[in-house]
Design brief:
This protein is mostly helical. The protein is about 60% helix and about 0% strand. The longest helix is centred in the N-terminal third of the chain and has 30 residues, at about 35-65.
Length: about 260
């Protein structure tokens, strides 16, 4: 991009002046590793924003029966989730002693309060009404409450199967299981849909792997200490490992 007067520049397009002014260390004297901690977590929030955007688009595409495009965007979701997992390695270059230099400044803030992280979960299929309590502002609370009422990716996928002649009724788990088994055993009869189902499962799996990797990092940093937000730290995080967005897609593997 040109830097000529009046022309759009690289820095102006990305609003770099504002972006690079958002990393403020609270520790006094400033702890060296606090800047790394802030940047990594801000980067996570940017990736969460992109995930929410892509998952909303995938949901719409499934309702529109556009399986190829939905699958294309699912590939992007998977790439972002792999990158998010690898980003933890950057945080692990920080020694626990260095983290303790500024950890007390974080209290009572906690990653548990990330509204966009909860949006990803809600969009993907985890409808937990408690998430709305995590909002810091009335606008955030209203947004999370809206997520609790709108269709999830699983709802959109079920609608896609219904349209393909594979009934997925709300109150009949046996019929849903039968439809999913038919899909799995007759992949050629439903072009692309089985592989979209597998894409959803990969999304579920990669998010679970990110959770596990994150727990190991927390244990490496603080051991069994309580979290800054008052949670039980790693022991709480371990209770989240069994969360699944699409348990019915996992279950059909037992019956093939």
């Amino acid at each position: 991009m040109s830097g000529e007067e009046g022309a759009l520049s690289y820095g102006a397009y990305l609003r770099l002046g504002e972006l690079l002014d958002l990393q403020t260390r609270l520790s006094k004297p400033p702890a060296h590793d606090e800047l790394l901690f802030i940047i990594v977590h801000q980067a996570y929030e940017l990736w969460f924003k992109e995930l929410v955007f892509e998952l909303e688009s995938i949901r719409r595409l499934m309702f529109e029966r556009n399986v190829p495009r939905a699958r294309h965007l699912m590939t992007r979701v998977h790439a972002i989730e792999r990158l998010m997992r690898e980003q933890i390695e950057v945080l692990e270059t920080m020694d626990p002693q260095d983290f303790m230099e500024f950890r007390s400044n974080l209290d009572p803030a906690s990653g548990f309060q990330s509204v966009q992280f909860r949006e990803v979960e809600l969009l993907s299929g985890l409808r937990d009404p408690r998430y709305a309590r995590l909002a810091e502002t009335p606008e955030q609370r209203a947004g999370l409450e809206q997520r609790l009422t709108e269709p999830t990716l699983w709802d959109a996928f079920r609608d896609l199967l219904d349209h393909a002649g594979l009934p997925m009724p709300d109150e009949d788990a046996e019929t849903r299981a039968s439809s999913l088994q038919k899909l799995a055993r007759n992949r050629e009869a439903f072009p692309g849909i089985w592989y979209l189902a597998d894409d959803l499962l990969v999304h579920d799996e990669l998010f679970a792997l990110w959770r596990h990797r994150h727990i190991l990092m927390v244990e490496r940093m603080i051991g069994s200490k309580t979290g800054t937000g008052g949670s039980s730290g790693a022991s709480y995080l371990r209770t989240t490992l069994e969360k699944r967005f699409y348990p019915e897609l996992w279950d059909i593997r037992s019956n093939l």
